[in-house]
Design a protein that fits this description.
The complex is a heterodimer of chains A (217) and B (706). Chain A is of the alpha/beta class and 217 residues long. Helices cover 35% and strands 16% of the residues of chain A. Chain A starts with a helix and ends with a strand. In chain B, β17 and β18 (277-289) form a beta hairpin. The chains are: A alpha/beta (217), B alpha+beta (706).
Chain lengths: 217, 706
């Protein structure tokens, strides 16, 4: 009797899980086109695990309780160069990490395309450009890139302490490759980090990212 | 900027150098950022004219010649990229307008989408010279152009451009860039002749373009380029439906949550199949947010019901309704069963009448007529008859016309069984009186109904009717609600007299409608008709209290005057106004007929024939871009060209055979019949290209008459 009961319970639990999984899968399939980010501003930031340049895997979930910035990059893209040559990106990285923010630089260029780097090359770039990320992730299989719908380099995301995606889009409001446009620009990432630190909602949570296409192919 | 960029690249290369040298075995060098070599785009500034007049406007073009495999960007670059810019450094007093972009292409880049140009593109700017510009010397227009060019990688490039052009009085000759600029102007989206709307669900965005009567077999492809990011997922496939009412595009929603809340400007590109291949026509559309006809059937029924309820308060319906309501007041203590049956009869009258109206509307639409709610008011005959009916009703409420006893008497008849037919016809009358009116919510519901299959459309129409009947029906079905009605009394007569005035106002409005449709003569006839009705009403009242013999005479005259009034109605309708207000500008044309063409040819006159159709998109663009221009009007006037327009919208066999004689099976077709001009026989007709430009028409006549 009791064995039968457990069996039934187990059966129900299994079929329940199965139904939920099938439901989730089918809802994903039916409502989302083939290329559509799973990440949505205002919802939980989807987790991923990608190798950092030192070879150790980094999981977004391991930073629970901390504010995380995701920065998609391609060092040869003129728009990325605008922000690194001017020192804008590095100073933002120092500012953020100095306040305990985790800064993950993500490279989603696949091998053979612009911006693809080996781990030593990536470390070399960090050194030579005096960059200050927490880690540089080599997303060679485009897993994180497609999960977040990263379209451009640079493409910026901010995740708050509760794991909610609170900002997605451009680094600032001057969509050009001119270094001269850096000083007068309104930096959306800094604004988002300030809002998160002050416990306020992000004023401009979604913007059009500008730059070069992420080299997925 | 390019040099600065290369310098920066070198700096990074040098910085990267030593670190990489430390690990020669493992790491190949970090590649130089961009391939060295010549720029990927060469730009030239082109002028439309060979010289420039003081105080004149003309086009200049920034031509980009783009290396194979590379592309530049449109104003909305898509998922990445940047639109080109030009900073002008013009001489004092000169002004330059904004950059005008020709229609872009969709360029998939992996899973993303770019909007831009390949091969060659000419971006346009309208430049204006100052009025006091001294003639004689040349001027040089300078600008600094900057653009992003991408293949797989992207390179920002820039260049100084200039154009030196002499200043001279008098009409300038075409410049070296004239044909390239004209071609570019042909590719610039023209203002859309159709309204468009935007509607969003959490997953998808729908753009509906109200372009009725397009022929789906002629349309090879429809593309929409949103003017800004975030509303539509650029890379998502666009699902296109071409129906009787226009084009509907559906695509996955973009990332900006509030994106579809604001109106969306964009470019609609329609590739149309012509005899000579595909024509790609671009229209600048503004999809008005939230106005989409994409209600659910249930929402449409709800809106129709609300609209019908509000319709009761409209000036044309309220007085009609009051007749029934006052009767109910007068007989509040009557048998509930009888009252209920009256309510049902009234409702039946409304519903039957609405079904008839909807049936007529749907049947006419199925027959190809492009009509909507209010179609009945497009006929001056119907408008005149409505004016008569409402006027008669108003006279009755004023107490000037006695139809089988006054209103106070109607209440007594309500109790009688014979009154059910009366209730039914009051319902019908309320519907007829309601037809000129539109209530809030009705427009959206009706708009939706007309895009639906007949059964669904009928349901929405009946919901509107039910809404109209509902207040009276509710009062008659629920005796308790009747307790809120005031007590009967002399106030009822005052109220009904007062309610005549909204009806008179409706009549005044209908007369105004007739004035738009049938001109002053039509108005005169309608007013005479109203006069006769008033006269007939007075005679009828006189007859009421007269001796039997006189009563017959008076009634006879009353009927005769009413008959004359009714006979006037079609006459009023038969007088179309002499001129159509707001006729489009451009060269004057006359309708084509083979006889007229033969006559003009016999006289040796030059003739231009435009074979067109309402459903032909290329024809529409040609008329807007080329035929309506002042330059063409001037050339037609100068050469005495007679412009004939052959409308093939209804596909007449006569025009089909003429098209066939030119080896064509469809429109557009533009034929130039040159003047005889001293020759023994007129030269052969010439065909102009299906993609028409001002230049090709002007050239055709200027060359022929040399």
């Amino acid at each position: 009797m009791s064995a039968e009961l457990i069996g039934r319970r187990r059966f129900l639990a299994r079929t329940g899980t199965g139904l939920v999984l099938a439901g989730t899968a089918s809802s994903l399939l039916s409502t989302r086109p083939a290329w559509a980010a799973v990440a949505k501003v205002g919802e939980a930031a989807p987790g991923f695990t990608v190798n950092a340049t030192n070879g150790s895997p980094v999981s977004l979930g391991s930073y629970n309780g901390k504010v995380v910035v995701l920065e998609w990059t391609n060092h040869d893209c003129p728009y990325v160069r605008k922000h690194y040559d001017s020192g804008n990106m590095q100073s933002l990285q120092r500012e953020a990490t100095g306040q305990g923010v985790v800064w993950l630089t993500v490279i989603s260029s696949v091998e053979g395309t612009q911006g693809y780097v080996t781990p030593p090359q990536a470390d070399e770039l960090t050194m030579s450009r005096k960059a200050a990320p927490t880690a540089v992730l080599l997303d060679t299989k485009s897993v994180a890139g497609k999960l977040y719908g990263a379209t451009n380099t640079p493409h910026m995301y901010v995740v708050d302490k509760t794991g909610t995606l609170v900002y997605a889009g451009a680094i600032d409001d001057r969509p050009t490759s001119r270094r001269a446009d850096v000083p007068g620009a309104n930096n959306y990432v800094r604004a988002a980090l300030d809002a998160v630190a002050a416990g306020q909602p992000v004023k401009t949570p979604v913007t059009r990212a500008y730059g070069c296409t992420v080299k997925y192919s | 900027m390019a040099t600065r960029f290369l310098a920066a690249a070198l700096v990074v290369g040098m910085l990267a150098g030593p670190g990489l040298a430390a690990e020669p075995a493992r790491a190949p060098t970090v590649k130089a950022p961009n391939p060295p070599g010549p720029p990927k785009v060469s730009v030239t500034l082109l002028g439309e004219t060979a010289s420039v007049e003081p105080g004149a406007s003309f086009w200049v073009g920034i031509r980009q010649r783009i290396a194979p495999g590379w592309h530049t960007y449109w104003t909305n670059p898509g998922d990445s990229g940047e639109p080109p810019t030009v900073d002008w450094a013009l001489p004092a007093g000169w002004t330059a307008g904004p950059l005008v972009f020709p229609q872009p292409e969709r360029m998939p880049v992996g899973p993303l989408m770019s909007y831009g140009y390949t091969d060659e593109v000419v971006l346009l700017t309208r430049v204006t010279s100052p009025a006091g510009l001294p003639t004689g010397g040349p001027v040089t227009l300078r600008g600094h152009a900057a653009w992003l060019v991408c293949e797989k990688i992207c390179i920002p490039e820039e260049a100084d451009v200039s154009l030196t052009i002499p200043v001279a009085a008098g009409k300038p000759a075409p410049g070296t860039g004239a044909s390239a600029i004209e071609q570019a102007r042909r590719a610039v989206p023209s203002p859309s002749p159709w309204p468009a709307s935007l509607h969003a669900t959490p997953e998808a965005v729908t753009v509906s373009v109200a372009a009725p009567g397009l022929r789906s077999d002629r349309i090879a492809e429809v593309l929409f380029f949103p003017g800004r990011w975030g509303v539509i997922d650029h890379a998502a496939p666009q699902e296109v439906t071409i129906g009787r009412d226009g084009i509907t595009l559906r695509a996955a929603r973009g990332l900006l949550p509030e994106g579809p809340a604001a109106d969306l400007d964009g470019v609609l590109v329609i590739r149309e199949r012509l005899d000579q291949g595909l024509a790609s026509e671009a229209f600048a559309i503004t999809a008005v947010a939230g106005s989409g006809p994409l209600l659910s059937l249930l929402a449409a029924i709800g809106l129709a019901l609300a609209g019908g309820l509000i319709l009761n308060l409209m000036p044309c319906v309220l007085p009609v309704l009051s007749i029934k309501a006052l009767a109910l007041v007068a007989h509040a203590e009557g048998s509930p069963g009888v009252t209920r049956r009256h309510g049902l009869a009234y409702t039946a009258g409304v519903l039957v009448c609405f079904a008839g109206l909807a049936g007529a509307l749907l049947a006419l639409r199925a027959g190809g007529a492009q009509i909507g709610w209010g179609f009945q008011l497009q006929s001056p005959l119907v408008v005149t008859v409505l004016a008569y009916v409402l006027f008669t009703l108003a006279l009755s409420l004023s107490g000037l016309l006695v139809i089988g006893g006054r209103l106070t008497g109607v209440g007594q008849r309500l109790a009688a069984r014979s009154g059910y037919a009366g209730s039914f016809f009051t319902g019908a009358l309320a519907t007829v009186a309601a037809t000129p009116c539109t209530a809030p919510f009705m427009g959206a519901a009706m708009g939706f109904a007309l895009t639906q299959p007949p059964a669904a459309a009928l349901v929405v129409f009946e919901a509107l009717g039910l809404g109209l009947a509902l207040p009276f029906l509710a009062l008659s079905l629920v005796p308790a609600w009747r307790r809120v009605l005031p007590r009967p009394g002399p106030w009822m007569a005052r109220l009904s007299e007062a309610l005549a005035f909204p009806l008179y106002a409706s009549v005044a409005w209908l007369v105004w409608v007739v004035s738009r449709q049938a001109g002053p003569d039509g108005v005169a006839l309608v007013l005479v008709g109203l006069l006769l009705i008033a006269f007939g009403a007075w005679l009828h009242r006189v007859a009421h209290g007269a001796a039997p013999r006189r009563r017959r005479v008076a009634t006879g005259f009353a009927l005769a005057s009413a008959a004359v009034a009714i006979a006037l109605a079609p006459l009023a309708a038969a007088n179309p106004p002499a001129t159509t207000p707001g006729a489009p500008a451009g060269a004057a044309w006359e309708p084509f007929s083979p006889a007229r063409l033969a006559e003009l040819r016999a006289q040796g006159k030059p003739v231009f024939v435009n074979f067109t159709a309402a459903w032909c998109i290329t024809c529409l663009v040609n008329e807007r871009v080329a035929l309506r221009g002042p330059a063409v009007t001037e050339v037609f006037a100068r050469h005495g060209v007679v412009y004939l327009k052959a409308d093939w919208t209804s596909r007449s066999g006569e025009i089909a055979s003429i098209l066939g004689s030119f080896g064509r099976s469809g429109v557009p077709l533009y034929v130039v019949y040159p003047a005889r001009a001293g020759r023994a026989t007129a030269p052969e007709p010439r065909l102009l290209p299906q993609i028409l430009s001002e230049g090709s028409i002007i050239e055709a006549f200027d060359k022929e008459t040399l």
